[in-house]
Amino acid sequence: MSTLCMYPLNKKANIIDEKNQAVRIEVELLLKADAIRELQFPEWIANVVLVKKPNGTWRMCTHFTTLNKACPKDFTPYHVLRGL
């Protein structure tokens, strides 16, 4: 990803203790599974959003809206990609 793009204006979110514990557990699981790695570009922040599930536990989602707005659009037509 080119870092020449405009940086997203997100700031690190403050999370309450109950949610903070849920995030720590989820991050540890993702790190152990090699699904994520330590952040290399701290300017590029995509904050997490916690959604309470019906069973009372938390689901961790990532909010990429600001990050997506800062990245250049890919205007390659679908039929060109399909032919590759």
From TrEMBL:
PANTHER family on file: REVERSE TRANSCRIPTASE DOMAIN-CONTAINING PROTEIN, TRANSPOSON TY3-I GAG-POL POLYPROTEIN
Indicate what this protein is called per its UniProt record: Reverse transcriptase
